[in-house]
């Protein structure tokens, strides 16, 4: 179950911030986090995730609760080269970067445990309602207050 977005008009470095956030999470959890994320890439990434989920439902008749975001890859696309006029008749180059995004979903039983610190524990994940999940994401997203200066 894959979905691909090509020539998305944002730099890959900025899109990878969103991609790394949802990698290894359940599909429903990733959708909730993408809803709450204040990044520009979260909208197209959510749309791509929904497309991959729809592909899974159509082709393999799998429910959304059984899906896990196995891989999200963001590669560099074509660079649109433009120029900005400068003083004395000269010009400086402007590079407009694009990204190719590939998202792959897997069923829990097909996923092997990854090596390293970030292990995905599928069996122990409790089922929570959407309201509780939204509250947790909001609490994690709040910036910490700095201490007042004297």
From TrEMBL:
Highest taxon of the lineage: Bacteria
GO molecular function, one term: rRNA binding
One annotated Gene Ontology cellular component of this protein: cytosolic large ribosomal subunit
UniProt keyword list: Ribonucleoprotein, Ribosomal protein, RNA-binding, rRNA-binding
Keyword Mitochondrion assigned: no
Stored InterPro entries: Ribosomal_uL22, Ribosomal_uL22_bac/chlpt-type, Ribosomal_uL22_bac/org-type, Ribosomal_uL22_sf
Coiled coil (residue ranges): none
SUPFAM superfamilies (alphabetical): Ribosomal protein L22
GO biological process, any: translation
UniProt entry tagged with the keyword Ribosomal protein: yes
PANTHER family in UniProt: CHLOROPLAST 50S RIBOSOMAL PROTEIN L22-RELATED (PTHR13501), LARGE RIBOSOMAL SUBUNIT PROTEIN UL22M (PTHR13501:SF8)
Function noted in UniProt: This protein binds specifically to 23S rRNA; its binding is stimulated by other ribosomal proteins, e.g., L4, L17, and L20. It is important during the early stages of 50S assembly. It makes multiple contacts with different domains of the 23S rRNA in the assembled 50S subunit and ribosome. The globular domain of the protein is located near the polypeptide exit tunnel on the outside of the subunit, while an extended beta-hairpin is found that lines the wall of the exit tunnel in the center of the 70S ribosome.
Quaternary structure and interacting proteins, as annotated: Part of the 50S ribosomal subunit.
Family to which this protein belongs: Belongs to the universal ribosomal protein uL22 family.
Entry protein name: Large ribosomal subunit protein uL22
Annotated organism of origin: Candidatus Nomurabacteria bacterium CG1_02_43_90
Source organism phylogeny: Bacteria, Candidatus Nomuraibacteriota
């Amino acid at each position: 179950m894959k979905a691909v977005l090509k020539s998305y008009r944002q730099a890959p470095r900025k899109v990878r911030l969103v991609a790394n956030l949802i990698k290894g999470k359940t599909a429903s959890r990733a959708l909730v986090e993408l809803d709450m994320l204040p990044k520009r890439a979260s909208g197209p990434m959510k749309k791509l995730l929904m497309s991959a989920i729809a592909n899974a439902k159509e082709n393999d008749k799998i429910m959304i609760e059984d899906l896990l975001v196995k891989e999200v890859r963001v590669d560099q696309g074509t660079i649109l080269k433009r120029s900005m006029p400068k003083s004395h008749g000269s010009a400086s180059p402007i590079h407009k970067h694009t990204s190719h995004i590939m998202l792959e979903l897997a069923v829990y039983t097909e996923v092997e445990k990854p090596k390293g610190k970030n292990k995905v524990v599928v069996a122990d994940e409790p089922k929570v309602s959407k309201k509780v999940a939204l509250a947790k994401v909001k609490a994690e997203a709040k910036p910490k207050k700095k201490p007042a200066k004297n």
